[in-house]
Amino acid sequence: MNGKRIGEIDYLKCVCILLMIAFHLVFFSEKYPLAKQWVYTFHMPVFLILSGYLMQIEKRPSEFLRAMAWIFVPYMVMETGYVAMSEVLPVRDKVDCLSVGLMLEKLFLHPMGPYWYLHTYLLCGLIYYGVFHWAEKMRLVSRLVVLGTGYAVLADACQLVSLPNALYFLAGVALRRSGMTFTSFFCPSVWALIPLVWLSADMANLNRFTLGGVAIVYLVASVLLSLYTVIPAGIRRVSDYVGRHTLVLLVFSPVFTMLSKGLVPLFMFDETGFCFLFVAMILTVTGSFGIAWCIDRVGVSPYFWGKKQMLQPFHPK
Description:
Blueprint: H1 7-22, H2 26-29, H3 33-54, H4 61-85, H5 100-108, H6 116-134, H7 140-157, H8 163-178, H9 182-185, H10 193-200, H11 211-228, H12 233-244, H13 246-259, H14 274-297, H15 301-304
Helix pairs in contact: 1-3, 1-12, 1-13, 3-6, 3-8, 3-11, 4-6, 4-13, 6-7, 6-8, 7-8, 10-11, 13-14
Domain Acyltransferase: 7-293
Protein name: Acyltransferase
Transmembrane segments: 12-29, 35-55, 67-85, 115-132, 144-167, 179-199, 211-235, 247-267, 274-295
């Protein structure tokens, strides 16, 4: 892909990250449990497929490890902070007694909150790099089998990742290595809406770890891609920008989804929860970008992201 941005992929990343934020807002998600279950069927699988597809392993070991280190640093900072705050804030995965051992266990073995994705990304990426360079003379299918076996060991024997999540990452790797473009496999089609509705009507399929769930992942991506060319150009530019900065939202959004709980009493008048959703989403997105902007301005980005500036300029036209 030679470093060139793919608008359709950034758009998919934007949709998925915004859905992740929306359904991490407890006040809203508890009002729509079926919608939450449906969204959870596909939004992180799409992210994992894209992660495997986009990961670049055509680097020297030192360069690749440096890139992984600059994913680990924000992960380490925010996961440690999340665990610490979980002792005092009313979160579902509440910590009763902090200790160094607990911090290390959550950081390296069983992360809390949405940061499990970065943990999975790091582990799957490191094994991917190791297998494809160690077994570079093997046929592609053989390397994929070895990689899948490595993920099975990581999941079942070591219990460090979820095997289905690792397999979605593997699917992205297989797609990239096959030489197919993302949009030629996930063919944009509005007609995919018909089987999507049919499958989604059966609760048994609302599980990303079932065959029906896998089909929903494919069909949702196909439907969303079919909409990319018809959405207004201004919205497309915004979605492309957000899609280029999903790491910022993934890292900082938990701060604001927690803070948003303080807004709940102000929106009790709205039984639908959509007024709360609108305000909380704006707070979370702008707040996350605001933190990234501040980090850029004060010169901390080289020590947090490993780059001089994280936020790229936004071009409205």
